[in-house]
Specification:
- Its main location: membrane.
- InterPro entries: MetI-like (IPR000515), MetI-like_sf (IPR035906).
- This is ABC transporter permease.
- Pfam families: BPD_transp_1.
- This protein is an all-alpha fold and 333 residues long.
- It is built from eleven helices and two strands.
- The chain has a two-stranded antiparallel sheet.
- Strand 1 and strand 2 form a beta hairpin.
- Helix 4 packs across helix 10 and helix 6 packs across helix 7.
C-alpha cells in the first residue's frame, strides 16, 4: 500500500514537472489536436480490421477507403445533377424566347426541374427541417420553462402533463401528426410541403420536453441572494427576468437545448425513414432497398455524415453558450 502511494506521488510530481517545462501552447495543442487524432486513428484501425472480417450478402462490410470513394461519387453525382438542372432551365428559357419572338402574346410557361434529389440536397433538407422544428420548440419551451420555474403553482399544475408525455417516443406521434396535417393543411397552393410540416412538427415534439425541464430547473434554482436583490430594487417582472433570471439560467437552458437538438437530429432521421419524407433518412432507406454492390458503402457514408453533422450542431450550440454566458471562466463540454 505504501509503495503504491509513493509511486503515485512520484508520477504526479513528474507530470507537474513536465507541464512546468513545456510551453502552454504545446500542452494545449497536445490536448486539443494530438489526443483526438490518436483516438480517430485507433478507431479507423479497428474499423478497417473489423470491416475486412465481416462478409454480408452484398459483399464485404465497407471500410474507410470505400466510404471515401463514395464521398467522391456522391459529390460528383450532385455536380452532374446541378449541370442537368442548369441545362434544363437554359433549354426552357430558349424555348420560351423563341415562342415569344413568334408570338408576343404567348403566355410563358415555367416548369420546375423535377430531377431526383442528390445526397447533398438531402443533407440540406434534413438540416432545414431539424433547425426549423428546433426553433419552433425553443420559442415555445423556453418561455414556458421560465414561467414554470418562477411559479410553484404552475409547476404543480403542468408537471403531471410533462411527466406523462416526456417518455413517449416522438415516432409514436408520427402517424397522428401525419393524419392531422393531412386533414388540416389542405391548401391548393401550399407554402411548404406536407412532408416538411410533418417532419418539423415531429422534431418540435421531441425538442420541447428537455428544454422545458432544464429551463424550469435552472430558473427554480436561482441564487436566493440575487432574488432578494431584485425584490429590494423592486424590479418589474420583465426586468427581473431579463437582468436576473435569464443570465443565471443560461447554462441550464443551453444544456436543455443541446440535449434537444441531439435528440431531434436522431429522431428526424428515423422519421424520414419511416414516413419516406425527403432527407438523409430516406436516402439511407432507399439505398437499403436498392441492394446494389455500393449500397453498404453509401449507407455507411450517410451514417458518418449524420454523425459529423450532429457533432457540428452540438459544437455550434456550445460556442453560442460561451458567447451568451456571463461567466466566461466556467468550462463547458
Amino acid at each position: 500500500m505504501m509503495s503504491s502511494l509513493i509511486a503515485q506521488l512520484i508520477t504526479r510530481k513528474n507530470e507537474s514537472v513536465i507541464k512546468a517545462q513545456l510551453p502552454p501552447f504545446v500542452i494545449h495543442f497536445f490536448k486539443t489536436v494530438t489526443l483526438p487524432t490518436i483516438g480517430i486513428l485507433v478507431f479507423l484501425l479497428f474499423w478497417t480490421v473489423g470491416a475486412n472480417n465481416i462478409d454480408t450478402s452484398l459483399g464485404k462490410f465497407p471500410g474507410p477507403a470505400q466510404v471515401m470513394t463514395q464521398v467522391g461519387n456522391l459529390y460528383n453525382e450532385h455536380v452532374e445533377s446541378r449541370a442537368k438542372e442548369s441545362a434544363f432551365y437554359e433549354r426552357q428559357d430558349n424555348r420560351n424566347q423563341a415562342r415569344l419572338a413568334k408570338d408576343p402574346n404567348y403566355q410563358v410557361k415555367t416548369r420546375t426541374y423535377t430531377g431526383r434529389e442528390t445526397f447533398v440536397d438531402q443533407i440540406f433538407t434534413s438540416l432545414i427541417t431539424v433547425l426549423s422544428g428546433f426553433l419552433v420548440a425553443a420559442v415555445i419551451a423556453i418561455p414556458l420553462g421560465i414561467a414554470i420555474g418562477l411559479s410553484k403553482s404552475l409547476n404543480t399544475a403542468v408537471n403531471p402533463i410533462i411527466q406523462i408525455f416526456k417518455p413517449v417516443s416522438p415516432l409514436a406521434w408520427l402517424p397522428l401528426v401525419t393524419m392531422v396535417v393531412s386533414a388540416v393543411y389542405t391548401s391548393t397552393d401550399p407554402m411548404f410541403a406536407k412532408s416538411f410540416i410533418v417532419s418539423m412538427i415531429t422534431v418540435t415534439l421531441c425538442c420541447i420536453w428537455p428544454m422545458v425541464i432544464n429551463t424550469s430547473v435552472g430558473v427554480a434554482s436561482l441564487n436566493s441572494d440575487w432574488v432578494n436583490v431584485s425584490k429590494v430594487l423592486r424590479l418589474p417582472a420583465l426586468t427581473h427576468i431579463q437582468k436576473i433570471v435569464l443570465p443565471a439560467s443560461i447554462p441550464a437552458i443551453f444544456t436543455g437545448m443541446r440535449l434537444s437538438l441531439g435528440i431531434a437530429w436522431m429522431v428526424l432521421i428515423a422519421a424520414e425513414m419511416l414516413a419516406q419524407n425527403p432527407g438523409l433518412g430516406k436516402f439511407v432507406w432507399d439505398e437499403f432497398q436498392n441492394g446494389s454492390s455500393d449500397s453498404l458503402s453509401r449507407i455507411m457514408t450517410a451514417v458518418i455524415v449524420i454523425g459529423l453533422i450532429g457533432f457540428l450542431l452540438d459544437r455550434t450550440m456550445l460556442q453560442l453558450q460561451r458567447v451568451l454566458s456571463w461567466d466566461k471562466t466556467t468550462e463547458v463540454r
